[in-house]
User: Fold these one by one.
Assistant:
Number 1:
Amino acid sequence: MSMRGWNSYSYGQMPSRAVFDKHWEREVGPNDYFMHLKGEDADVGDIGGYLGPGTYDEDEIWDMVNALNDNGGDEAMNLASSILYTLKIEWI
């Protein structure tokens, strides 16, 4: 890992599940991830399975980010990038 625990990838390149799991364990731990999307993010969030404000587990977030990434639209990609960034995984 680089830059104090950060991993960087080309824009749109997903980390492996193993890397995602390590970041999840370090940043979220055994807890669920609370998410409340607004505006444009909420509009595209349903692509990834966002069901409204609440908690999401590791598998749900992994699936959501992958679905948003696979969608390929700018708004969806921006949301996927934002979620990954909170786990110290960045797209550059």
Number 2:
Amino acid sequence: MNLLVLLPAITVALTLLTAIVSAREVRRLKAKLAQLSVRLVDAQARLQQSQQHRITVVGTLEMLGKIKTGRLAQIDSLQQELKSLEEEVAPDHEIGQAVPPTRAAEAGL
């Protein structure tokens, strides 16, 4: 008869012990989940900032590419204009730099 009373008491004690251990583990896991949730929010915010920065960089690169293309076209146009002006000048004329009036007076020109 002692065994019939002792066996259920041991079972109840083990069940209570298991419940206590399980409750502690659940609390620990909930705390860990909360930490991971905060890290997730931070990572998502950093990702969004990085994506926005990337969009800005791509836009800047496109703008600089257009400016470069425009400048190269302008340089090409000016070189063609210079070449045509050089062809218009008589072969015996030399193309030189203009001398500012103050220096021309000093040089006796």
